[in-house]
């Protein structure tokens, strides 16, 4: 199993989580690989920071009993500077498969990596196309100009979803598709953490007609939780109707895979309103609890790693099987044990009666 979207912190944010801790939890959840996002502190936006991260991660993996078999892939971060975009695309090609792809924050989230204006995004896609980049670009798609921060009130956390409306996601996805197509982009455009079935339908409908590959993914929290669970996360949780239809989007294949968007914080940071939830235990829990009953064994394999291997073009034999991935090895007790490693458990809602 592969979780292709995690934020492992460390460096200046080691109070939130360290690489070694994240790797240990990932291995115990049965994963063979995690792909890490670049909005670390400092951000992974240069060849030098990527190489420093790889060295630190290798040391962390070596220090771990058993978890040393985990594959750690990382993303290079895209900024609004075309020279940096060329540099990071070349670094990805040079350091692939360890550097698996590039990340574009087409909307601000945690960190300061937003490339938020359409003019800046247009330049990014043109630069990537001009450089002949053929790898994956994963996009956080929320249109900054459609956010309505004044609709959020701290004593009603469910209003986070009003402040970051679904229209901001849909419009950003449409913008990124149009810009990439106009630029002549020929790699893969991946829409991270889709929150709405409408977005999933756009991806499924438009993908086949495009000159590049278009994919989307769902997270455990958008599949299992609703705005009424009052968790602060970007992009936000939606209604129960959207949640249940999003499950069908993944089952049907409108969305390609499951990704956790694991983003742990300290209890104090959460109390102060930090956006993000721990997600690696939830990734496995959703796989076991939800998907096994809903999809064929083949589709299950595709959703939890097979399609990622294919789309990222990972070399055969890169990943080692994790013995803890065997069917039925991760039940409510195992989930509880791993969830305790983080200051809050987002999955104590009614869906998981046995948790
Ligand atoms: Zn993320």
UniProtKB/TrEMBL annotation:
<dbReference type="GO" id="GO:0006145">
    <property type="term" value="P:purine nucleobase catabolic process"/>
</dbReference>
<dbReference type="GO" id="GO:0004038">
    <property type="term" value="F:allantoinase activity"/>
</dbReference>
<dbReference type="GO" id="GO:0005737">
    <property type="term" value="C:cytoplasm"/>
</dbReference>
<protein>
    <recommendedName>
        <fullName>Dihydroorotase</fullName>
    </recommendedName>
</protein>
<dbReference type="InterPro" id="IPR050138">
    <property type="entry name" value="DHOase/Allantoinase_Hydrolase"/>
</dbReference>
<dbReference type="InterPro" id="IPR032466">
    <property type="entry name" value="Metal_Hydrolase"/>
</dbReference>
């Amino acid at each position: 199993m592969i979780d292709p979207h995690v934020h492992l912190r460390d460096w200046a944010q080691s109070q939130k989580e360290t690489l070694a801790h994240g790797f240990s939890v990932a291995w115990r959840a049965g994963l063979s690989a995690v792909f890490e996002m670049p909005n670390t502190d400092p951000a992974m936006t240069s060849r030098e920071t990527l190489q420093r991260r790889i060295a630190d991660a290798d040391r962390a993996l070596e220090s771990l009993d058993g978890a040393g078999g985990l594959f750690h892939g990382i993303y290079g971060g895209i900024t609004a500077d075309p020279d940096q975009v060329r540099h990071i695309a070349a670094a990805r090609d040079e350091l692939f498969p360890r550097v698996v792809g590039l990340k574009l924050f087409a909307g601000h989230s945690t960190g300061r990596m937003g490339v938020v204006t359409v003019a800046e995004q247009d330049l990014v896609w043109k630069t990537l196309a001009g450089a002949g980049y053929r790898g994956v670009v994963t996009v956080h798609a929320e249109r900054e100009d459609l956010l309505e921060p004044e609709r959020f009130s701290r004593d009603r956390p469910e209003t986070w979803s009003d402040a970051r409306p679904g229209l901001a996601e849909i419009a950003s996805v449409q913008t990124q598709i149009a810009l990439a197509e106009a630029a002549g982009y020929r790699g893969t455009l991946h829409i991270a953490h889709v929150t709405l079935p409408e977005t999933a339908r756009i991806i499924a409908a438009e993908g086949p007609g495009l000159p590049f590959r278009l994919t989307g993914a769902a997270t455990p929290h958008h599949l299992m939780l609703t705005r009424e669970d009052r968790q602060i996360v970007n992009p936000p949780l939606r209604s129960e109707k959207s949640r249940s239809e999003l499950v069908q989007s993944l089952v049907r294949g409108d969305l390609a895979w499951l990704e956790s968007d694991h983003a742990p914080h300290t209890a104090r940071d959460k109390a102060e309103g930090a956006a993000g939830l721990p997600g690696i235990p939830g990734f496995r829990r959703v796989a076991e609890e939800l998907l096994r009953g809903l999809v064929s064994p083949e589709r299950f394999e595709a959703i939890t790693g097979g399609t990622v291997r294919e789309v990222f073009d990972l070399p055969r034999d890169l990943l080692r099987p994790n013995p803890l991935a065997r069917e039925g090895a991760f039940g409510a007790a195992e989930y509880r044990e791993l969830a305790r490693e983080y200051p809050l458990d987002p999955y104590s809602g009614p869906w998981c009666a046995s948790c």
